[in-house]
Design a protein that fits this description.
Layout (H helix, E strand, L loop, with lengths): L2 H4 L39 H6 L11 H6 L5 H9 L6 H7 L1 H12 L24 H7 L34 H4 L17 H12 L7 H8 L6 H21 L7 H43 L5 E3 L2 E3 L1 H18 L4 H7 L2 H18 L16 H10 L7 H6 L7 H27 L16 H32 L7 H21 L3 H28 L6 H32 L1
Antiparallel strand pairs: 1-2
Length: 580
């Protein structure tokens, strides 16, 4: 028997491949390792739990509170969506149980070349599908296991209960039951990230499809609307740092829902979670609209007329791509798909290069035009620019996964600074190239006879196609968690995911306005997630400790966010109704 299995952590054997320098027992601040007593396994001593709130008014959620509170799958599903994995052979094999079993046959045959550690104590065991410690524990309760104390990684969601409570006979909660290994297979918690890896993860979150509409924002709001970009970027960067301070206030806070729970109780956790999941769902609607628009521009004459049903190119391709995406949403393990999604940064960079290529070498050129300011449509531009900074739901996960958390302010500032410059550059270049004819996505304006235009349009097709399943999975898991225990099986899960995909198609066909829907999302969800909630949670958690000037600043940001959300959402909805 392998040494790791004798120690009782065979399921954790591949959890930190390539990360031997990490101190797995370090505390949340990267300091000294914890003591070996039982309190180190429970996420903190009773005294720490009692004093982690604001003078005892509202304690941070302890382990039992986090296990019973919905949602439990948030941490790992969002990690899978945002993190850019390191493409090594061993981590790819660790990502999929089927590949792990295949790899195990090679181990038995004597070929352990791919599974050697750099330090070299022998091959790593692949005798069972790789599962996070909590799911492995649930799937093996019926098997005799050695009662061995194991230091728990802070990345695990949910944390393993203390050994003293394992046999307590507590009823299994629905939120824990849905994490059984025979039901879903979330990837293992991500290893600790370096500063460079965290920057790439930040770019992967911020550099999304929002960049396609920045030129259209100038058309709607005028040239002076560009001033909103640095203002929104600076405010969003500051509120991202506020989320960091909220996490630092308690060792039990790791995600955005945890922050909401500490600030406003269980109802705060539920409200924050619902807002975040609605934002992800709406992003999937935008993916369907984007796929329909892009493919209909490549094949504009495509249509379908059958038994009285007439579908134009946009509707036909939206339905077709949704059906092609559906099998990927059914997958029980999306770890390998996350490697394709990690190409989001590369796809965005390629589209930007193609835009400048067409403008400089394609004969289109740059022609200054447009108005200085259009107040009536300025709220639409505000929503479009705001959507570009909708990454706050992932920032706590990036911060929690960093090796050196003191580098997070630099990572956040660098990502926002670079992205703001890129957004402004693309907006100016795109509008100067296409002027008042600029469409909701500048790729639709690029002449199709040029090779760079073809590359750009297909990049905008592949990117949302690979990201759809990863974006929808957190929403599906949250719904499956809330179902009764007897309904938590794979067949019901497939039905839930199918209904979600079909519903996004219906919404996308009812509101086929890519820019206006994005402006609505930026006005409502981005203002909530990026401006209003971080300031409100920070003032609630740090009540009595925040200086007066910062209190005034946070209140000002909240008021600005509320006004922008109301005005932007009203303008977007009004224009959508007028366009029908």
């Amino acid at each position: 028997m392998d040494r790791d299995e004798e120690m009782g952590h065979g399921d954790r054997s591949l959890l930190f491949i390539g990360d031997e320098d990490d101190d797995l027992g370090a505390d949340r601040d990267g300091g000294s390792p914890p003591s070996s007593d039982d309190s180190s396994l429970s996420g903190g001593s009773d005294d720490d739990d009692a004093g982690s709130g604001r003078d005892g008014e509202r304690d941070a959620p302890d382990d039992d509170g986090q296990k019973g509170a919905w949602p439990q799958s948030y941490r790992q599903s969002i990690d899978m969506l945002s993190a850019v994995p390191s493409p090594t052979v061993s981590t790819i094999m660790a990502a999929s149980p089927s590949l792990s079993r295949l790899g195990n046959s090679f181990v038995k045959a004597g070929s352990s070349f791919f599974l050697k550690k750099a330090g070299g104590e022998g091959s790593l065991p692949l005798t069972r599908p790789l599962l996070p410690p909590s799911m492995s524990h649930l799937s093996q309760q019926s098997q005799p296991q050695p009662q061995q104390l194991v230091r728990q990684s802070t990345d695990s969601l949910p944390p393993r209960p203390p050994p003293a409570r394992q046999g307590s006979g507590l009823a299994e909660r629905p939120s824990r039951a849905c994490l059984k290994s025979d039901y879903i297979e979330l990837p293992p918690p991500s290893t600790k990230c370096s500063k460079g890896q965290s920057i790439i993860n930040g770019f992967n979150v911020l550099c999304g499809v929002g960049i396609l509409t920045t030129a259209y924002g100038i058309k709607e709001g005028g040239w002076l609307s560009l001033l909103l970009l640095p203002m929104l970027g600076a405010s969003s960067c500051y509120t991202g740092l506020l989320l960091k301070r909220c996490i630092d206030s308690s060792p039990n806070i790791e995600t955005y829902p945890d922050i909401g729970q500490v600030a406003f109780g269980i109802f705060g956790r539920i409200f924050v979670s619902v807002v975040l999941y609605l934002e992800l769902y709406a992003s999937c609607v935008e993916y369907i609209t984007l796929l329909g628009d892009s493919l209909s521009s490549v094949f504009p004459s495509t249509h379908l007329a059958f038994t009285g049903i007439n579908l134009n190119a946009h509707n036909l391709f939206a339905i077709t791509m949704a059906l092609l995406i559906l099998p990927s949403v059914w997958l029980r393990n999306l770890s390998l798909l996350s490697y394709l999604s990690a190409g989001g940064v590369f796809a965005t960079l390629t589209v930007i290069i193609c835009l400048f290529w067409v403008g400089i070498g394609g004969g289109v050129g740059f022609h200054p035009s447009g108005t200085a300011l259009n107040l009536t449509r300025l709220p639409v531009a505000l929503g479009l620019y705001g959507y570009c900074y909708s990454g706050h739901s992932v920032f706590p996960n990036i911060y929690s996964s960093m090796k050196d958390r003191s580098q997070f302010p630099f990572v956040l500032l660098f990502c926002f600074l670079v992205c703001t410059v890129v957004y402004a550059g693309v907006a100016v270049s795109g509008f100067m190239m296409f002027g008042e004819s600029t469409m909701s996505q500048f790729t639709l304006n690029m002449p199709q006879e040029f090779i760079p235009s073809k590359i750009a349009i297909w990049m905008t097709i592949v990117n949302p196609y690979t990201k759809y399943a990863l974006t929808m999975t957190p929403v599906a898991l949250s719904i499956e968690e809330a179902l009764p225990k007897k309904m938590q099986n794979y067949l019901v899960g497939m039905s839930v995911r199918t209904c979600l995909v079909l519903s996004t198609v219906v919404v996308a066909l009812l509101f086929p306005y890519f820019a206006l829907v994005m402006a609505l999302l930026g006005s409502v969800f981005t203002m909530l997630v990026a401006l209003i909630l971080p300031c409100a949670c920070y003032l609630s958690i740090k009540k009595g400790e925040v200086p007066l000037w910062e209190v005034c600043l946070c209140i000002t940001i909240i008021l600005i966010g509320v006004v922008c959300a109301c005005v932007g959402s009203y303008t977007s909805i009004h224009q959508m109704i007028s366009s029908r």
